[in-house]
């Protein structure tokens, strides 16, 4: 993927927040919504941009879509990934978002609807 597309995808704060959660583990869309207190349409729009740039990959499990950092992105942009991994955890909202992430993961939100 072109570097311009990657940096466009990274130029939005909500996308950086999403990435900072996905550093920890893959997440379902509903987990991202709950964790970051965002609407489904907003989360989907940001996930689409991150996936289109090659940063994320997704898969479907039952009716849920799960997202994770693309292994190909990490391999092809290793230095950038190391930088992001380090810097995303230093964002002012990271600690609060991370606490919400842990709560969401413990709730097993996707399993509630089965």
From TrEMBL:
SMART domains: HTH_ARSR
Keyword field contains DNA-binding: yes
Pfam families: HTH_5
Annotated keywords: DNA-binding, Transcription, Transcription regulation
InterPro entries: ArsR-like_HTH, HTH_ArsR_DNA-bd_dom, HTH_MetalResp_TranReg, WH-like_DNA-bd_sf, WH_DNA-bd_sf
Gene3D superfamilies listed in its UniProt record: Winged helix-like DNA-binding domain superfamily/Winged helix DNA-binding domain
One MF term in the entry's GO annotations: DNA-binding transcription factor activity
Domain spans labelled HTH arsR-type: 1-89
Protein's name in the database: Transcriptional regulator
